[in-house]
Amino acid sequence: MKILHTADWHIGQLFHEYDRSDEHQQFLYWLTETLVLQEIDLLLVSGDVFDNANPAASSIKMFYTFLHETSKRLPHIQMIIIAGNHDSASRLEAPKPLLESSNIHIIGMLERTENHAINIEKLLIPIKNKTNDIILWCIAIPYLRMGDYATIENVSNPYTASVVQLYQDVFQLANQKKQAGQCILAMGHLHAANVDIQGHSDKDRPIMGGVECIPANAFHEDIVYTALGHIHKAQKVGGRENVRYSGSPIPMSFSEHQYKHQVMMLEIKEDKLVNMKAIEIPILVPLLRLPKQHEKLENVLDELAKLPTKENENKLAPYLEVRVLLDGPEPALRHLIEKAIENKQVRLAKIDVQKQQGKENTTIETFDKLDTLKPSDIFSKIYLKTYNEEIPNTLQKLFQDVLEETLSKEN
Q1: Which domain holds residue 225?
Q2: pLDDT digits (tens, 9 = 90+) for 337-381
Q3: Most buried one in 28, 118, 142, 293, CB count within 10 A?
Q4: Element at 187 (helix H, strand E)
Q5: Cα 394 to Cα 20: distance, rounded to the nearest angstrom
Q6: Which residues does residue 347 pair with via DSSP β-bridges, in sequence order?
């Protein structure tokens, strides 16, 4: 059986207000062609199909068109899709009864039994070969929010202990069901411990001080492969080659511009993982960061002047992040940058401003000192700390005017 693992599509994402429909559509076209070319039997999508819980109709249509076209071209293919933290679990599961007739399984929520226990049977999916024989069992656990899992009390980290226990329970059930020649896969959308999140988007970083991180040993050694989603950088987990994040198919932020975007393809033969390789995904729209390090505005404008001249109104021109080092306020900053690139083959997405370090002795050390300072004094200190220079008289006067107007309204 040949398997392809992908995750974190984030269909519907706006990239600094730019629509990315063309990029996502191109990826899904490429994915369908890759599935056909590689003769894939099983597709694993490990969460975050959509970028938000209420995706636009066009995003939903794009997703289900992909499922339809892929199933039509590969009638034998089976798909397992789990919900991520960006997905609405119930919305993703809505067409589940219809899709299961096409060997497409979607797991968004944890179903409960009559006594309110987690129905772990529903988290275990049998995968069959072309002769309708079960050859593997897939543990498919979606992103878990508080209340989804049975909480283990009196432990130092209830979240981690509870999630680990759930994986162990479903593995034990799978191990009871599997017969000779069969093997076990696992899926999850979670934050594994000790993974590399350098450059990863802040919105998906660990919360609660990192206590929700799941150790690699949550996935039993007898699981032949664990397909994870949530971290956008493709990597193995805990030094284990068969526990992996596939990574996102396109960069979701400028901090991901150096990531290698890929899917993982693996082959199982006689209950063993016999082959595994990454397939790189072509990027339709590149990300461009200029300059490489934050520089003063005059140097940045010189750098922008060297960009290629616009040939046409190409909506697929590179997204541009401009990195500027300022030593004081620059009200015309955006205007100057837009002027510099108005005939360039780029699309301005972000201006990243870094301010020079302020003086050390400008810190207000205690709350007591605040009582002795006037608002204008605090404003002056903050300005000095931020820009490493005294506040201009004109700006000080404007601040004083605003302050007096505010106080007069309060009185």
Answers
A1: 2-280
A2: 999 999 999 999 999 998 876 544 444 445 455 556 778 878 887
A3: 142
A4: strand 183-189
A5: 44
A6: 319
